Amino acid sequence: xxxxxxxxxxxxxxxxxxxxxxxxxxRRLGRxxxxxxxGGALRRAREDRLVGGLAAGLAxxxxxxxxxxxxxxxxxxxxxxxxxxxxxxxxxxxxxxxSDSNIAGRALADRRGLALAAGxxxxxxxxxxxxxxxGASWLWSLAWPLVISVAGITLIWRNSPADxxxxxxxxxxxxxxxxxxxxxxxxxxxxxxAALLLAGGLGALLAGHGNSALLRPLAGVTxxxxxxxxxxxxxxxxxxxxxxxxxxxxxxxxxxSDMAARVHDSVLQTxxxxxxxxxQPQQVIQLARAQERELRSWLFGGSPPGxxxxxxxxxxxxxxxxxxxxxxxxxxxxxxxxVGDCELDDDLSxxxxxxxxxxxxxxxxxxxxxVSLFAEVEPTGVALYVRDRGRGFTPEAVPGDRKGLAxxxxxxxxxxxxxxxxxxxxxxxxxxxxxxxxxxGTRHPSRA
Amino acid sequence: xxxxxxxxxxxxxPRVFIVDDHGLFRSGVRSELxxxxxxxxxxxxxxxxxxxxxxxxxxxxxxxxxLPGGGGQDVVTATKAAHPQVHFLALSASDAPEDxxxxxxxxxxxxxTKTISGTELVDAVRRVAAGDAVxxxxxxxxxxxxxxxxxxxxxxxxxxxxxELDQLTPREREVLRLIARGYTYKEIARELYISAxxxxxxxxxxxxxxxxxxxxxxxxxxxxxxxx
Lengths: 448, 228
Prior knowledge:
The complex is a heterodimer. By secondary structure, chain A is of the alpha+beta class. Chain A has three domains: 1-27 and 306-448, Histidine kinase-like ATPase, C-terminal domain (Heat Shock Protein 90); 28-170 and 207-247, no CATH class; 171-206. In chain A, 63% of the residues lie in helices and 9% in strands. Chain A has 15 helices and six strands. Chain A has helices at residues 21-38, 54-62, 66-80, 82-93, 103-109, 111-133, 137-141, 143-159, 162-181, 183-209, 215-276, 281-299, 315-330, 346-366, 404-415; strands at 4-7, 333-339, 370-378, 381-388, 419-424, 430-437. A six-stranded mixed beta sheet of chain A has the order 1-5-6-4-3-2, with helices on one face. In chain A, helix 5 (103-109) crosses helix 8 (143-159). The radius of gyration of chain A is 27 Å and the shape is elongated. Chain B has two domains: 15-132, Rossmann fold (3-Layer(aba) Sandwich); 140-227, Winged helix-like DNA-binding domain superfamily/Winged helix DNA-binding domain (Arc Repressor Mutant, subunit A, Orthogonal Bundle). In chain B, the strands form two sheets. Chain B has a six-stranded parallel beta sheet with strand order 2-1-3-6-7-8, sandwiched between helices. A two-stranded antiparallel ribbon of chain B has the order 4-5. In chain B, strand 7, helix 5 (118-129) and strand 8 form a beta-alpha-beta unit. In chain B, 46% of the residues are buried. At the A-B interface, strand 2, strand 3 and strand 4 of A face helix 6, helix 8, helix 9 and helix 11 of B.
């Protein structure tokens, strides 16, 4: 099949189960063969990454085993902190596989990110300077790597593309979850640790000097801190405020695109159907009525259209619902197959919404009489395929105002950490492959 | 009920017998098949089906999974021992997986749904007549599910699994997944860079495992599904 593949690279630790083994093997072979011989530019790996994919990239480039490189990074990190800083800087400078621009290039254009990095760096520098003055010289030796790393990570976090973002979040989520899952004990624990540190620090200071001669350097340090806060404080505050504003704007933008996707899936789709069936007044009335009901329940009842949260609780139920709805609305057969089942969460609901959109697209545009819908639940994720043997299309030729594929499928999946591959060519049919990693949960056999 | 015609010469049109309790459906299938096959008889119940099949010895029996006088598997078990040359293809609208698996385990060589097109059905009949297996997307899904549920069952207290029969190879799983995604054998062959013949042999091997795998394990799987 002559394929045109527009693809969002698969998420970090997970690849679709349907993915033929040999493709992986070929790609890996290709990387090994190309690494030492052709001496192509260094790229960060997208697939066997633990953090930034740098070690895997270096391994592919030099032919050294990836584990050796990882050990070197960890050892240098433990000894001087230098390994961490070097890693972060390289992360900024080395482009990801399959791309030519690095994160640093984007970061230079991100004023607020630079300010934030400088702010955090200076804050950290002050803290380190103070602790250096207090005699903790071992901390001082870590100062520069630490400042560089913190500033660098800030820039990376703000400027990495969506798919890398999802990968990083995947890495950090368990830690954040640990901090947030149990708020009360968590904050109690933090306060207790802070109190313990404070007591320990004061104790060490008093024990070290033993008399009031201690007070003089301490007073000096306090003055320095006060000066720093006075000089830099407003700036730090402004950065923090800007961040909050920016975050709100981003939330609003996300809400807007989410709403656009929903309106597209419901209202615009129905309007298209009504145009198609203009000669069948009974059906037009039915469609309009159903749409009106849906829209009302969204605007006044708060249940978003196309959402399946209320109607079903498991993935297999959702697939069945898609099958029934699309068969009823578009009058063609949906051959739906599910293997395994699991409870729906936000991510999987988004997967279902994207699958519904892909199925409706196939029903509307492909001209095929049967659409195949296959979902497989695996411990690490859910793979879903929508396939038709219809007329296919040229992805580049889709008009810009047709938001189905871009907004309702691609953007929606990426927002939830999933990935999409569309495989199509004119006359060859279309297959949309959707994959969504699963947080946790047990697989249980599907119901009939 | 009719039973007529001499056995077809090898390579001719396959001789087909239809067992279904809906007359409308039987005539539908008849017209779908057209003159591509030779429909030699029909029956709407288990007992007459068994008698008529023994009399006219068709190449392929198109068999509904649910029948008034018992399940479709009763027809298969009653016929299989005396007439091993008669092949069965299960054909029905929408069934519980355990019933479909039961018919397959009784000896049917495939399962297709009634949404199948006429040409595809003729193709499936030919395949079954030639001794190959025919898997619809839905059957592929059932099988993947059944074997996935079997996999962890080899734990303590359970007899060790026979890897030859109780597990699918990665390649077989790949082939089943592609069938479930709606690929034809030809498309699967192209996708996996293997010949159509190899795809067929993978599917036949899955069928064999499905039929011969340790009985109580598959039964247990079916029972668990009913409980949920």
